C-alpha cells in the first residue's frame, strides 16, 4: 500500500493557479470530495497517494516545519522571513519559474527630502522613523546590515500600502511584482531599498526526505 504524502498548496493569490498548473501538466488530477471549494483534495494513481491541503502561503511554511506536510509550494520570501528554527527544517528543492516579486522599501512620492537608504539613515539620526511591513525579520536584518538605526519596525496586519496615507508610518516594506499597487497608493521605491528577490519554490520537510515516494514526487513536480 502506498504511503500518503501530504502536500500544502497556496489556497489563493499569485501562487495558486500556477501551482495547480504544475499538477495538471504532470497529470496529477486533484479530486475533491465536497466540491471545487473544498480545501482538501486527493490524487490517487498507480504511483502516488497524495493528500492536498489548500492553505495560506505562509501556513505552507509552518506545515513543513511542524510535520503537518511533507511537500509544499510557497514563496521564498515567506521562508526567509521565518525564524532560523523553522528554516533549518525545510529544504528548497527547486526554484519555480513563477511568483516572481521583490521585497522593497517604499516612501511617499511627496517626501522629496528622502530618496535613498542613505537619506533614511541620516533622517533617522535626528527624528525616529517607523516602517511598516509583513516581513519583520527580513526588514530588521536588512536595516541592521545597512547600519540604519532609530527606525522602528511595525507589523502590518492588513493592506500595508495604505499605512503612509493614514500617517501610520513613514515608510513601507512590501512585496511587489508589477509595482502597480505601489503607484496607485502614491508610493515610490527608495534607492537601495531592494531587500530580497523572491519566487515560488518547491520545498520539502527535511524529515520527509526519508519517506517513501517523497523524493520521486518532488523530482516530478520540479521537472
N to C succession of SSEs: EHEEHEHHEEHEHEEHEEH
Sheet with most strands: 6 strands, mixed
- How many extended strands? 11
Oligomer: single chain
Strand content: 25-35%
Query: Which residues sit in consecutive blocks of at least 5 with pLDDT less than 50?
Result: none
Rounded radius of gyration (Å): 20 Å
Structural class from helices and strands?
alpha/beta
Mean pLDDT: 94
Report helical residue fraction: 25-40%
Contiguous helical run count: 8
What overall form do the CA principal axes indicate? Answer: elongated
Task: Give structural notes.
- The two termini are 26 Å apart.
- The chain has helices at 16-25, 57-65, 76-80, 84-87, 117-126, 136-145, 180-184, 214-222; strands at residues 4-10, 40-44, 49-55, 71-75, 90-95, 101-108, 129-133, 151-155, 171-176, 187-198, 200-205.
- It is α/β, with parallel strands linked by helices and 223 residues long.
- β7 (129-133), α6 and β8 form a beta-alpha-beta unit.
- The strands form two sheets. Strands 2-3-1-4-11-5 form a six-stranded mixed β-sheet, with helices on both faces. Strands 8-7-9-6-10 form a five-stranded mixed β-sheet.
- The radius of gyration is 20 Å and the shape is elongated.
Amino acid at each position: 500500500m502506498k504511503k500518503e504524502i501530504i502536500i500544502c498548496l497556496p489556497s489563493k493569490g499569485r501562487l495558486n493557479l500556477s501551482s495547480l498548473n504544475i499538477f495538471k501538466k504532470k497529470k496529477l488530477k486533484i479530486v475533491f470530495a465536497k466540491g471545487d471549494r473544498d480545501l482538501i483534495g486527493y490524487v490517487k494513481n498507480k504511483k502516488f497517494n497524495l493528500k492536498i491541503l489548500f492553505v495560506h502561503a505562509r501556513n505552507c511554511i509552518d506545515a513543513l516545519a511542524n510535520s503537518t506536510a511533507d511537500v509544499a509550494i510557497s514563496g521564498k520570501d515567506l521562508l526567509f522571513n521565518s525564524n532560523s528554527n523553522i528554516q533549518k527544517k525545510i529544504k528548497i528543492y527547486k526554484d519555480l519559474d513563477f511568483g516572481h516579486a521583490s521585497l522593497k522599501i517604499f516612501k511617499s512620492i511627496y517626501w522629496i527630502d528622502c530618496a535613498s537608504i542613505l537619506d533614511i539613515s541620516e533622517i533617522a539620526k535626528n527624528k525616529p522613523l517607523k516602517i511598516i511591513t509583513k516581513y519583520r525579520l527580513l526588514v530588521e536584518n536588512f536595516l541592521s546590515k545597512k547600519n540604519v538605526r532609530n527606525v522602528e519596525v511595525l507589523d502590518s496586519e492588513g493592506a500595508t500600502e495604505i499605512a503612509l496615507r493614514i500617517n501610520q508610518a513613514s515608510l513601507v516594506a512590501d512585496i511587489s511584482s508589477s509595482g502597480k499597487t505601489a503607484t496607485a497608493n502614491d508610493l515610490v521605491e527608495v534607492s537601495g531599498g531592494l531587500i530580497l528577490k523572491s519566487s515560488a519554490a518547491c520545498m520539502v520537510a527535511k524529515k520527509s526526505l526519508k519517506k517513501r515516494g517523497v523524493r520521486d514526487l518532488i523530482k516530478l513536480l520540479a521537472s
